[in-house]
Design brief:
The chain is of the alpha/beta class and about 500 residues long. Helix content is about 40%, strand content about 10%. The protein has 18 helices and 14 strands. The strands form four sheets. A seven-stranded mixed beta sheet has the order 2-13-9-1-8-4-5, sandwiched between helices. The chain has a three-stranded mixed beta sheet with strand order 12-3-14. Helix 2 packs antiparallel against helix 7, helix 3 runs antiparallel to helix 6 and helix 4 crosses helix 9. The longest helix is centred in the last third of the chain and has 27 residues.
Length: about 500
């Protein structure tokens, strides 16, 4: 039960222990019975120890993350973990994690490994299993019968409580992840927009799409935040969107979703993986040169047919300071790519490290340490909220600088190209509100901080004069989401194709 601290802590918040002692105790018995039932069905001479060892080790880790950051270990979180690189995950390696791993995982697992187990005849073992299964079912049935009123509200009104049951929920989520990822994905890639054409136009278009990381809208001074987190962008002629919402709450979901033809309600991992995205449609035109540079984990499959360059190491990124390769390093050498495609439209995608947590203090250089003191620990619960927010806001100021430098680069080409920059964060971030940190909660229960994202556009002189941009400025305060990105990019490049939906083109409002 030590690995279910988070579950019972959440339960007694809804059902205070003093007034609901019988129900809380019965709930503990049900969790025990369900776990015992599962282990009984899976155990055998060859599987008992391996299963128990894996359950103890994994449960110790899930217990730590649920307890420390209040995250949910669902199938999307598992996908996010699997797709996270070593450099990112190293920020999460803390003494507290080691403590959980050793004392709640490794040590109990070692005791299980050394414990002698005597197995009886097959007939005797089978009968023992049957008796155990019946006993566990009796416990579950009796609990549901005697506390039916409580369980009715528990299952109908407090569904999120079940998401923290350890190890049952992460086992269920692992099965769901495997099913959705490996057992239920069409093999053949569905092509879309093969009819895409771009009418002749001069000068060609040069667009930079910046995919941000964990930038929540309410910490942008452009959106009324009391701190100056956008000192440079506030001096640029940008169009800021203060009601932009993400497709998901984690990079592994939001990034492929935002570039896909599907809306958030339509999108699924299977669809995203088996359907071409907006980069493919632009490629089908034959007139758009596309470049993806990534200073985050990777493109999550978006650039699979385009190719991407890793900017997390000095191999490609020439601006690496204080142990971190900086987002601004992705701007170095773009002139060469532009020069190599003089007659084509160009789309450059830059995927930021941005405000990737929990080590926000690593995401900016010393020059941007404006707000102090800052949290210099990955164990955010050990820092004051002010320290966490200070580090986060400093990282936002660095993104402000990076975006401003991107605009400056585009201004250099404003006479020979129709230039534009689009910035959209992948998701938001929780900074300790109600004890919740980072991101990745299921969308329906995620706080606004994880879904409400920073987004802004900049247009060069020639595009700014167009009727589309003039119209867009009037709609900057309306509700938008990442559902619009696919069609907005097509509209920006004037692509004619049957998959284009003008109703979801922000420039077509």
């Amino acid at each position: 039960m030590a690995d279910n601290i988070t579950f019972f802590t959440n339960v007694v918040k809804v059902y205070p222990f003093e007034q609901n002692i019988g129900f809380v105790l019965s709930l503990g018995m049900v969790v025990f019975a369900l776990t015992a039932l599962l282990l009984t069905l899976l155990s055998s001479r060859f599987t008992t120890k391996p299963i128990l060892i894996v359950l103890l080790i994994v449960s110790s880790l899930t217990n730590y993350f649920m307890q420390s950051y209040h995250v949910i270990i669902d199938d999307e979180m598992i996908r996010n973990v699997i797709q996270t690189n070593i450099a990112e995950s190293s920020d999460l390696l803390t003494p507290a994690l080691l403590f959980y791993f050793v004392f709640l995982g490794l040590l109990p697992a070692y005791l299980v490994y050394k414990a002698p187990i005597t197995y009886r005849s097959v007939k005797t073992e089978a009968w023992a299993k049957i008796k155990t299964v019946l006993a566990m079912l009796l416990i579950i049935g009796a609990s549901l019968f005697f506390y039916s009123k409580y369980y009715t509200s528990f299952f109908r009104e407090h569904k999120p409580l079940r998401f923290t049951v350890n190890p049952l929920y992460w086992i269920y989520s692992s099965g769901k992840y495997i099913h959705l990822t490996y057992l239920n994905v069409p093999v053949k890639l569905k092509q879309i927009g093969t009819d895409a054409k771009i009418p002749p136009h001069t000068p060609p278009k040069l667009v930079v799409m910046v995919v941000g990381e964990a930038a929540r809208s309410d910490h942008f001074s452009l959106n009324g935040y009391h701190r100056e987190t956008n000192p440079e962008l506030s001096q640029r002629d940008i169009i800021n969107f203060d009601h932009m919402y993400s497709c998901g709450t984690a990079t592994a979901q939001s990034v492929p979703c935002m570039f896909s033809v599907y809306t958030r309600k339509e999108y699924s991992y299977q669809k995203g993986r088996s359907t071409e995205n907006v980069l493919d449609v632009l490629k089908h035109t034959g007139n758009v040169a596309i470049l993806w540079r990534d200073n985050n984990s990777d493109s999550k499959g978006v650039a699979a047919r385009i190719g991407e360059t890793d900017y997390r190491t000095p191999k490609h990124n020439t601006i690496c300071t204080e142990g971190e390769c900086r987002d601004i390093g992705m701007l170095v050498g773009l002139e060469q790519f532009i020069q190599n495609h003089p007659k084509k439209d160009i789309l450059i995608v830059l995927h930021q490290m941005g405000n990737h947590g929990p080590a926000y203090y690593k995401r900016y250089t010393h020059d941007f340490k404006k707000f102090t003191p800052v949290c210099k620990s990955s164990q955010l619960q050990e820092c004051s909220r002010d320290e966490i927010v200070n580090a986060y806001d400093n990282a936002l100021r660095y993104t402000d600088h990076f975006l401003s430098k991107t605009i400056d680069l585009l201004k250099h080409y404003d006479g020979t190209y129709q230039t534009a920059m689009l910035y959209m964060s992948d998701h938001g971030e929780s900074l300790g509100e109600n004890g919740i940190y980072l991101h990745g909660l299921p969308y329906f229960m995620a706080p606004d901080a994880q879904r409400h994202i920073g987004a802004l556009f900049w247009f060069g002189k020639s595009l700014r004069k167009s009727a589309k941009v003039t119209s867009l400025e009037k709609h900057r305060h309306e509700h938008f989401s990442q559902d619009y990105l696919f069609h907005t990019l097509l509209g920006l490049f004037d692509v004619n194709t049957t998959v284009y939906n003008p109703k979801l083109d922000m420039l077509g409002k």
